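Q: Sequence in, structure out?
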Amino acid sequence: MNPLFQTLVTGATYAGSFHHSSINYTLLLIAILPHLMGREQLAKKNQSSWLWTLLSSTLIQISLWFLVNAIGISLIWNALAGFNLLFFTRNNYLLAYLKRLFFLSGFTIIFMAIVYYLIIFPVITTIAHVIAILLGVGLYFLYRGR
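A: Exactly. Output:
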């Protein structure tokens, strides 16, 4: 198999692990879902900034597959979680009840997943998750300002 293709497949599928792929792609969906719900009266820039965060974190994640032999997509959902945390706290009063509920449920589920991975993997995994959350916070400020 072509080494480029092999790296992409290995990175995207957790080296073929259905268990970890299922968990992580579900967490990615949970991090994205609140943004796909109804449109509040937020500026257009505010509505697309999460997409830029998704794109940036995806490109960084893929780069890590090639640069350090990383696997998985946890950087993406953790970066979105960091972005969502600031988005939620700064726009809570503008969000519909159901959307607020999705954000809060998402935070809870993602926190539980981080604790799960802290238990089953070395602590470096949790450090990477926390760094990815901080990346998401940084991307929030980059794409949203303030």
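Residues 44-67 form the longest helix (24 residues).
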